[in-house]
């Protein structure tokens, strides 16, 4: 992992788990696998806090441990992984996707699981039902079974999965203590692939009867609740020890499919995008997320699976499929004639194409904290070097190697400006210069100087720039909030007072009096701050979309 | 990194590969001589001027919902037990509100249910102690302190009573005029002493925790004084 990644991880951990975890986490990221003692010693954090931090990280899957690597009984080594922490940036998108797919219940299930790392099914269902009931009108509540069914659906579609069982964890510890089986102690628990575990998507039988409870505001209710909680604690639901986590890969697969569908829609038309959507949906479960193309599908199968609402006749479907096959981008390949023609959809090409079309736009410029106003944006070479530089870049991507003269001609840009732009691009490492000598003496007059755009290194570089951009955005946001801390606290206090006054049925006069405690300029300042923070936050979201595209391109090509 | 620096690096690296020549290609051939900036000996500005306007952020319902989700999520995670607060440094004085803060923290830690089968034992033994204990310890500490203080107060009261008894004895034996003077002095000195003690400990909690007997007695005394 790079310095930029570690910096971003640190900031994300600080925001979501607190400063202690940030310190422990970044230390682990920088130093690799370490024993507890070493972590305590080197971070200077108290042992209890280090232990708690490690628990938090492991709870969220961001940290793993290997026990007994150096023989049975040796203390476990802890290791943090960058990827999982960087996923925090994408949480809103996961939650939003589950909302669009499974409604509010799905949204809350995924949200709870993301925030808490992993949970049992019964625990999740209860919390979600309670939260849903909270927002409903008086006297209504949500039945646990409704939430359970949505949960099962999420599992069926692989959006949720079981946490892989950790053989190395408690068992190792107990066996080392009892000492009957020293060989078992050497088992490791480093990032076991959840898919390798056969019951990964099996929903356990959970006995859950009841409805979501509304939280009562009165003190009496509080007491009752705690009494009830105490009573409920020993209750079992038959799924103890089975924990669920969000399957990020599946979500990424879904995002990727969306990108492909919208790409086809913009390149061809709506109908063809529907056909592609059908193909993708059919191969959702049969194709593993890492495959470069889908399993072959016959035209007959595709026709049968097409949603009837689109009303696409068989002939039109065949025409569209030929169109897709004939497309120069080679998205869809024909590999046989049986069943009306067998088709495969090349995901790899799609990602590459999506990446390449977005590349000239997606390179983000870097906004630093401390500028006079929040300069936030997702912008590309378009904005960094202007649209004409982007033209040159696109040209180089298509033609691979070009001499300077050719660049000037093809891009139709005056020689002087083209030279200038090429130099700027070269100095930013966005294009490379390749020299091909005609004679072995490398005499300049007998050498070709070819400009070329190298995709993979460029993608990697842009990804790092994206990480840096997000870090800067977060830093800037923290700075803004710190600057206005006093004001924010004041407004919060006043809001609390207002709320309590309203609850007690105060008169309007009183309320306005309290409201006026914030002066007009202060109000204005608060609004400006809110605007800036919102802008920074949504910029983070949008840079993350670019990050997703770059990551999937890099992952699919190597 | 300066752009210029990049450029020079590129040239140097190209040169190194060939061996004896500094530059493998003539700068003129590439035609970038005129655009070569002068050598710079200081870092580039932290906030370079942006030559091109950035593209605006995409708006719309989805973006706004994502924004709201992001902010909600961040807020919610702050209130979860997995958000670890740094140990608060011992502040200057013990405050009345402290005990409420303590109870808040313990409540959060109680919610933190961890299945220890999934975590290494070395974390477990202490951590299980830590959440419960961290809070309990402080409670116990303050409890012990309070008890100590109570003992102290009791001792002081006994001492006072004893001295008073002695004085009474003295009173009966000595002349009235002298005795009055002495008694006043003694009382004053004692009062001073008491105040000092109280100030040193800054211990209004002590009086709060007492069952009120002392307090009542005190006020009675005062009343007496006021009346006479």
UniProtKB/TrEMBL annotation, chain A:
- For the keyword DNA-binding, the answer is no
According to the record, the residues making up region (Disordered) are: 170-196, 212-236
Where's the RNA polymerase III subunit RPC82-related helix-turn-helix domain?
8-66
**Any one GO BP annotation for this protein:** DNA-templated transcription
Location(s) in or outside the cell: Nucleus
Residue ranges under compositional bias (Polar residues)? 172-196
Q: What is this protein called?
A: DNA-directed RNA polymerase III subunit RPC3
TrEMBL record, chain B:
On whether Phosphoprotein is a keyword of this UniProt record, the answer is: no
The GO biological-process annotations, alphabetized, read as: transcription by RNA polymerase III
Which residue ranges does the record annotate as region Disordered?
A: 165-228
Per the record, GO CC terms? RNA polymerase III complex
Q: Which domain of life is it from?
A: Eukaryota
Bias type Acidic residues, positions:
186-203, 211-228
Keywords from the named record? Nucleus
InterPro entries attached here? RNA_pol_III_Rpc31
Intracellular or extracellular location(s): Nucleus
Which residue ranges does UniProt annotate as crossing the membrane?
none
Q: Which family does it belong to?
A: Belongs to the eukaryotic RPC7 RNA polymerase subunit family.
Name of protein: Polymerase (RNA) III (DNA directed) polypeptide G like b
């Amino acid at each position: 992992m790079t310095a930029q990644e570690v910096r971003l991880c640190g900031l994300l951990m600080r925001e979501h788990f607190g400063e202690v975890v940030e310190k422990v986490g970044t230390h682990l990221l920088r130093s690799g696998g370490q024993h507890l003692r070493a972590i305590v010693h080197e971070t200077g954090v108290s042992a209890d806090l280090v232990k708690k931090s490690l628990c938090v990280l492991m709870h969220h899957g961001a940290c793993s441990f290997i026990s007994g690597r150096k023989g049975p009984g040796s203390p476990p080594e802890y290791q943090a992984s960058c990827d999982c922490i960087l996923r925090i940036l994408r949480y809103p998108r996961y939650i939003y996707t589950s909302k669009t797919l499974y409604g509010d219940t799905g949204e809350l299930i995924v949200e709870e699981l993301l925030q808490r790392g992993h949970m049992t099914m019964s625990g999740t269902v209860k919390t979600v039902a309670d939260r849903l009931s909270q927002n409903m009108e008086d006297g209504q509540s949500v039945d646990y079974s409704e939430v359970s069914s949505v949960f099962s659906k999420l599992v069926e579609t692989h959006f949720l999965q079981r946490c892989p069982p950790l053989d190395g964890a408690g068992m190792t510890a107990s066996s080392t203590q009892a000492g009957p089986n020293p060989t078992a102690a050497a088992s490791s628990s480093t990032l076991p692939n959840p898919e390798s575990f056969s019951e990964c998507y099996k929903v356990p039988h959970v006995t859950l009867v009841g409805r979501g409870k509304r939280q009562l505001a009165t003190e009496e209710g509080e007491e009752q609740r705690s009494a009830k909680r105490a009573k409920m604690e020993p209750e079992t639901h038959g799924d103890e020890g089975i924990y669920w986590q969000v399957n990020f890969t599946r979500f990424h697969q879904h995002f990727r499919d969306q990108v492909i569908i919208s790409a086809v829609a913009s390149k061809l038309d709506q109908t063809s995008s529907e056909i592609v959507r059908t193909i993708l949906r059919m191969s959702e479960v049969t194709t593993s997320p890492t495959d470069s193309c889908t399993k072959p599908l016959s035209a007959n199968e595709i026709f049968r699976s097409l949603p009837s609402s689109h009303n696409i006749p068989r002939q039109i479907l065949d025409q569209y499929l030929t169109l897709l096959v004939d497309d120069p981008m080679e998205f869809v390949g024909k590999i046989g004639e049986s069943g009306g023609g067998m088709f495969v959809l090349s995901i790899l090409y799609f990602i590459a194409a999506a990446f390449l079309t977005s590349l000239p736009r997606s390179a983000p410029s870097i906004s630093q904290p401390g500028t006079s106003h929040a300069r936030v944006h997702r912008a590309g070479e378009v904005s960094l070097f202007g649209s004409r530089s982007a033209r040159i870049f696109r040209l180089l991507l298509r033609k691979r190697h070009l001499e300077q003269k050719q660049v000037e001609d093809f891009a139709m840009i005056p020689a002087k400006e083209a030279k200038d732009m090429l130099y700027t691009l070269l100095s930013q490492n966005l294009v490379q210069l390749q020299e091909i000598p005609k004679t072995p003496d490398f005499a300049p007059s007998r050498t070709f100087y070819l400009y070329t755009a190298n995709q993979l290194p460029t993608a990697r570089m842009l990804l790092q720039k994206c990480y840096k951009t997000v870090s800067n955005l977060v830093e800037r946001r923290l700075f803004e909030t710190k600057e206005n801390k006093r004001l924010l606290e004041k407004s919060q206090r006043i809001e609390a007072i207002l709320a309590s006054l309203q609850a007690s049925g105060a008169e309007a006069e009183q309320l306005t009096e309290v409201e006026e405690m914030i002066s007009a300029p202060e109000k204005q300042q608060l609004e400006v701050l809110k605007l800036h923070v919102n802008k920074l936050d949504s910029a983070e979201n949008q840079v993350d979309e670019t990050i997703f595209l770059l990551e999937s391109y890099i992952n699919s090509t190597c | 990194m300066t752009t210029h620096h990049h450029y020079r690096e590129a040239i140097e690296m190209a040169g190194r590969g060939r061996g004896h020549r500094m530059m493998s290609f003539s700068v003129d051939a590439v035609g970038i001589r005129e655009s070569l900036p002068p050598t710079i000996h200081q870092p580039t500005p932290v906030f370079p001027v942006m030559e091109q306007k950035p593209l605006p952020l995409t708006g719309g319902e989805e973006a706004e919902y994502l924004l709201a989700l992001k902010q909600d999520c961040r807020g919610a995670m702050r209130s979860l037990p997995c958000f670890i607060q740094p140990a608060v440094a011992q502040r200057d004085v013990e405050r009345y509100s402290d005990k409420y803060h303590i109870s808040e923290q313990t409540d959060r830690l109680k919610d933190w249910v961890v299945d220890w089968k999934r975590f290494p034992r070395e974390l477990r033994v202490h951590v299980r102690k830590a959440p419960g204990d961290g809070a309990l310890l402080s409670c116990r500490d303050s409890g012990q302190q309070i008890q100590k203080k109570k003992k102290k107060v009791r001792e002081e009261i006994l001492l006072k009573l004893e001295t008073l008894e002695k004085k009474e004895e003295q009173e009966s034996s000595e002349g009235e005029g002298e005795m009055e003077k002495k008694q006043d002095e003694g009382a004053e000195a004692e009062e001073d002493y008491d105040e000092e003690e109280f100030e040193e400990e800054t211990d209004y909690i002590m009086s709060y925790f007492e069952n009120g007997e002392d307090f009542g007695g005190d006020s009675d005394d005062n009343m007496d004084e006021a009346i006479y």
